[in-house]
Amino acid sequence: MKVDKEMKQYDVIIVGAGASGLICAGELGLRGVKTLVLNSGDKIGKKIKIAGGGRCNFTNLNVSKDNYVSNNPNFVISALKQFSNYDFIEMVKEAKIPYYEKKDGQLFCKNSSLDIINMLSKRCEQGSVKIINNYIVDDVVKQDDAYIVNSDYKTENLVIAAGGMSYKNLGASDIGYKIARKFGLKIIEPKPALVPLVIDGCDKLKGISLNVKVKFGKQSFTDDMLFTHFGLSGPAILKISNYWNKGEVIEIDLVPEIDIYDFLIKERESGNKKKLVNLLNGILPERLAEFIAKEMKINGNILELSNKKIREIANRINNWQVTPSKTKGFDMAEVTKGGVDVNEISSKTFESKKHNGLYFIGEVLDVTGELGGFNLQWASSSGASMARNLRLFP
Ligand SMILES: Cc1cc2nc3c(=O)[nH]c(=O)nc-3n(C[C@H](O)[C@H](O)[C@H](O)COP(=O)(O)OP(=O)(O)OC[C@H]3O[C@@H](n4cnc5c(N)ncnc54)[C@H](O)[C@@H]3O)c2cc1C
Known about the structure:
Helix content: 25-40%
Strand content: 15-25%
Number of helices: 12
Distance between the termini: 35 Å
CATH class of the largest domain: Alpha Beta
Shape: elongated
Number of domains: 2
Strand order of the largest sheet: 19-18-15-16-17-14-20
CATH architecture of the largest domain: 3-Layer(bba) Sandwich
Largest sheet: 7 strands, antiparallel
Bound molecules: flavin-adenine dinucleotide
């Protein structure tokens, strides 16, 4: 373990050099706050690098509290105002990073996520922030008003920006939750989110992709869905996974723009002798049409089908009820849902209500954004808000 004797005491120590830690460190540094970042990874911003397939969907043109899941849905409002999507866009513009809107307001870097990492790194450099990589924080103790990290570093302001549990190979750990628990803060059980779902018996459909409407409870999303060897993936499924609970049914409309019941009734009334599979072929991908006709044991033509049978077919297509057995877990989850209970934290300053000088920002908190740039925006909004509210000097 590295010990930096000269600079052992800092105004602020941040655990984690992901998006939230870096934004926070940059803001503090630029305000002249002596800041140290301790990071377990060999590099900073490893998740930013792979985000959005390497182009980093860094924010969205339309961000509101409705894009987030949390036990306290109003918690995000203050930070999203203090450092909004437009503040983030302004920062990106100032750094002359080319970006574009892909769809639905999602903003991506034109070149590479590295542009964002370089921007954040430069801001830290300008503020003389010290960053130590390959340094694993595994314990924090409180001594009077100070927090001691691994018996190496001391600060009166400790910021936990250690992220969630997803993608262990990028340095994810449970240290944020451990520290929170140690200081008596409540944790909402961390679960994988923005994650593919496992459905048994779909492997024959692997590779098929189509635009669907997925529903769970009050939530619904229309977007692409992909059948894989283990079940279902694609944006529509990742989005609904934020809300899905194990053991519960999701509803999938495989052709949201067509009422299959009306369509088949009309085809039958027209006296058309077409086979069901051939009719469905024009609407669904061929392999899926064959799969459904076989599954429903329908071989004959449409004239032989009763209203009841047509209703069953329509339900299978417009209202497929499916119960995933599980998610693909933290290894494939873009984010972690749950985390440090936000009712323990000030929504303005991100300080723990129980312990002065202990802060939590980013994904370690029980705030989960939808797919579309909302998680990096949250990391940035919470990180910047913490830094801007810190009052060190009287
Ligand atoms: C594949 C993938 C793609 C994604 N794409 C997008 C996207 O396009 N848009 C979007 O908005 N969101 C995206 N996300 C989510 C987004 O990247 C995260 O929500 C965001 O990076 C969280 O930032 P954070 O700072 O809270 O945590 P992280 O970025 O996870 O950073 C946590 C840091 O803490 C460090 N750390 C952990 N444990 C310790 C320890 N014990 N000691 C010291 N340091 C420690 C880690 O090394 C890491 O650097 C994606 C996520 C993944 C996995």
